[in-house]
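pls design
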């Protein structure tokens, strides 16, 4: 599952098995990077300007944290400057649709293994490990999913449910779903990349 800041989420008290590492950002149902309902809009101009002015190698490395395809990251860094977040996300989608199978395989190889907080119940660790092993045995690559629309307390249940559904896919169908999830993850991570850190 996903490369963006992947910090384990503490096990929750809602009856779910435990917290899952953050594979796709913690945006709400409004979409990747959308502020919570009622929150003031986020101004990405400063972060985007900083990103546009990074040296090429630094920008490419930052993009590789969003999607592990070197071809995708190189193209995204080379097409700077981006006038606004919308243009940056549109470029990300376009570059994502142009990825060849070997580029998608490279991106999937860079996706980190899923992680649960160490306090999560042992049953949750075992269930998640078994589900991922079944998926990787069937399709030969890591399972990826963007979880922006879900609260962290729902992540484990959503991952397990999605794996069950996707195990029934034919290889070509799952390849298309996986590519779409990689594009969604890249968008989410890009938004995080250019979002100002209030602690700085």
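designed seq:
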């Amino acid at each position: 599952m996903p490369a963006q800041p992947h910090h384990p989420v503490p096990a929750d008290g809602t009856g779910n098995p435990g917290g899952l590492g953050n594979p796709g950002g913690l945006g709400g149902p409004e979409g990747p990077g959308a502020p919570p309902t009622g929150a003031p809009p986020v101004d990405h101009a400063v972060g985007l300007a900083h990103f546009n002015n990074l040296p090429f190698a630094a920008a490419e490395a930052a993009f590789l944290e969003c999607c592990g395809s070197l071809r995708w990251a190189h193209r995204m860094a080379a097409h700077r400057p981006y006038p606004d977040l919308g243009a940056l996300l549109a470029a990300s989608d376009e570059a994502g649709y142009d990825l060849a199978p070997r580029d998608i395989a490279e991106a999937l190889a860079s996706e980190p293994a899923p992680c649960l907080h160490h306090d999560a119940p042992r049953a949750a660790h075992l269930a998640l490990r078994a589900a991922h092993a079944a998926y990787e045995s069937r399709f030969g690559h890591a399972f990826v999913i963007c979880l922006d629309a879900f609260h962290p307390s729902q992540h484990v249940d959503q991952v397990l449910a999605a794996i069950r559904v996707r195990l029934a896919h034919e290889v070509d169908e799952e390849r298309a779903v996986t590519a779409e999830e990689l594009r969604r993850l890249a968008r989410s991570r890009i938004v995080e990349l250019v979002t100002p850190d209030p602690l700085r």
